[in-house]
Every structure is written in C-alpha cells, then in structure tokens.
Specification:
Blueprint lengths: L1 H22 L4 H11 L4 E6 L2 H8 L4 E3 L5 E4 L2 E8 L2 E7 L4 H14 L2 E12 L9 E9 L3 E3 L24 E3 L17 E4 L2 E3 L10 E3 L2 E2 L2 H7 L10 E2 L2 E2 L6 E9 L7 H11 L1 E5 L2 H11 L3 E7 L14 H22 L3 H15 L1
Parallel strand pairs: 1-5, 1-6, 6-18, 7-16, 16-17
Antiparallel strand pairs: 2-4, 3-4, 4-5, 6-17, 7-13, 7-18, 8-10, 9-10, 11-12, 14-15
Helix pairs in contact: 3-8, 4-7
C-alpha cells in the first residue's frame, strides 16, 4: 500500500514539474542562466531608452560583450552583458515612456546584482544657455506628468479633491492655461483652467510595506554627481563627416531635469518648465528610472544629450535631425564612458553603499 502511494506521489510530482516547466513565467532554465551570469557580477546597470541611443554604445570600442553570455532575454527585454572601461555592465533598452522605463529598471534590479545605474540618451532643452549636442547631467529629476485638473471656476485658494486627507497637494504649483492665450494682454478665463503638479508615491525597499512616501524632486547620487564634475572638460564631437554644429558641445551639470509621457516641442511649455521649476532637460524616461532606483536604494545618475534648442524657432541645425541625433548619441556615449572610467572598483562602491545604508538606519 505504501509503495503504491509513493508511486502516485512520484507521478504527481512529475506532473507538477512538467506543469511548472511548461507554464511558469520564469523557467528553471532561465533562472539557472541568471544565476550563472550573476556569479560574474556585481554589475553597473546601463539603462537606455531606444535602439538609436543604445547602438552607438554597443558598436563603440569601449563596450566589450561577454564571450560566454553576451545577453539574456527576460520579459521581452534583452539584457546585454559586457564591460565598459574594465567595469562589468548590463545594458538594457527600456522602450518609450515612464512605464517602460520603470518596469525595465525594476526587472534589472530584481534579477541582477547591480551596484549603480547610469541612464543616458537624448533629450529636449528648456535652457537658452545650452545648445544642441551639449550633454546635461541634472542633480534632480521630477515626474511632471501627474496632475490634478481643477474645475473651471476654482483657483489657487480652493482646496483640491482629497487634499485634506493628504492624497493631493497645492505645494508644488500649477499651470494656468489662460496665461497662454493669444493675443496676450488682459487676463481672460479659459475653460481648461488649472492643472496642479503632484508628487509621486514611492515604497522604499527598506520602508514599511504599503506605507507610501511622497516625492517630487528625486536627487541623483551625490557622489556620482560630484564625480561628474571631472568630465565637464571632456571634448565632445561637433561634426559628422563634413557637417558641423555652429558651436562646440560641452558636458554640463545642471540643477534639474524632468520627465513625462509627453513629447514636448512647444516653446511656451518649455519656457514654463524652465521658469517655474528651473528645468533644463526634459525627456520621457529618466524620472521613471530615478524613482525605481530611489525605491530600491541604488545610486543613480542620468546624462542626456540635447537635440533641440529652447526657443520657438529652434535653429537651422534642428532641420538636420539625423545628423543631430548621431552627434548627440555619440556625445552621450563619450560622457558615460569617461564617467565610468573614473568610478571606483565595484567592491569600493558596494562598501560605500552599505555604509550609507547603515548610517541611515
């Protein structure tokens, strides 16, 4: 009787294993490969929005793909394993927008031993002091796409829905559409009224589960930001073949950047972002990466090369989009490779990360 029962249990176990292997989201084979890759870590995470921003890195002589495991595919993302300037790296493309950026970064940090994250690519420009081809390194990032849209007839002195309970706030500020009527002059009401900018909710990995924290401005790693000062004099490309920019691009640390699921070509909104929030760089992904890194307690920095001027008309160079993109993407790769070259060894970074974490407890 016992032998028959054991036989039935064995059959049941085999069926369960087959079911797991067939339908499990992450197969044993995939998890085994991830484990094998992790044995060669830890890694520096390189998070890139799109192919045209990622391929200049992959085709650059500074990137050396791993000979045994050049890549691994997880959840529709391809994580490319290699090295840059003697640092082991995992590079991954996020795809467009905040959600893709956040999901991809979460997968990266969830499966691999990553001690820091560098996000890079191209961006829009809200700062008239900077120009096409310049690489910007903001000290803070905000998600500027989370709004409360106020009823027509209500204003800055009227409480927002659920404000009393702490869900929403008027502390950050608002955009009044009536301020941008044409012709400008006397104030005329607009049915679109006001949108109030809101902070995001985050749930830190070392915090209390389901105890939300609100954050609008997310700082990059202070040590990374200070180190980035040393690459501000690095020479960048200004030409593609015989076509050159009208100025010499440069690497510049700036105060603030922002992200939202909006492609901004509107000069009035660029001006609003700069005047209201002191924003230089805007894009569609960086704040999503920053938010996940903040939640997971990982050092983070973003470097974005500008592909537009801040003014309404732009410049004649903006009509040469392919050339601008090539120059900008090459410059962003130059910036991150020179930055990585200055980073201390992974062991030192992990020790510093642990020491900072302990000091926060």
């Amino acid at each position: 009787m016992a032998s028959k029962r054991n036989q039935m249990l064995s059959i049941l176990l085999v069926l369960l294993i087959l079911c797991f292997r067939t339908n499990a989201y992450y197969s044993p084979e995939l998890l085994s490969r991830i484990h094998q890759i992790n044995q060669a870590g830890p890694y520096l995470g390189l998070v890139i929005p799109n192919k045209f921003e990622m391929y200049p890195l992959l085709h650059s002589p500074v990137f050396m793909a791993d000979e045994e495991s050049p890549y691994i595919d997880i959840s529709g993302r391809r994580f490319r394993i290699g090295s840059v300037m003697n640092h082991r790296v995992i590079a991954v493309m996020t795809g467009l927008g905040m959600i893709n950026a956040g999901v991809t970064t979460q997968i990266l940090l969830g499966f691999f031993p990553v001690y820091g994250v560098i996000h890079f690519g191209t961006a829009g420009n809200a700062n008239s002091d900077l120009h096409i081809g310049d690489v910007t390194i903001p000290r803070q990032w905000a998600h500027t796409g989370l709004w409360i849209w106020q009823k027509y007839g209500e204003g800055e002195n009227d409480e927002l829905p659920m404000e009393e309970s702490g869900d929403y706030t008027r502390d950050i500020g608002y955009l009044n559409f009536a301020n941008y009527l044409v012709p400008a002059g006397k104030h005329i009401d607009n049915l679109l009224n006001n949108v109030w900018f809101q902070p995001d909710e985050i749930f830190p990995v070392n915090g209390t589960p389901e105890a939300r924290e609100h954050v609008f401005w997310i700082p990059v790693s202070q040590s990374y930001y200070e180190l980035a000062q040393k690459i501000e004099n690095v020479k960048l490309d200004s030409c593609v073949n015989t076509t050159c920019l009208s100025h010499e691009p440069r690497i510049v640390r700036v105060e603030r950047g922002c992200s939202a699921n909006v492609f901004v070509a509107n000069a009035a909104y660029k001006s609003f972002l700069h005047d209201k929030f002191n924003v230089t760089t805007f894009d569609m992904e960086s704040a999503g990466v920053a938010m996940i890194c903040l939640s997971e307690g990982k050092p983070f920095i973003a470097m974005r090369a500008l592909v537009a001027e801040s003014n309404a008309e732009g410049s004649h160079e903006e009509n040469k989009s392919d050339i601008i993109t090539e120059i900008a993407t090459k410059n962003s790769v130059t910036a991150i490779s020179q930055f990585i070259n200055l980073l201390p060894s992974p062991g030192v970074q992990i020790f510093n990360l642990y020491a900072n974490h302990v000091s926060d407890i």
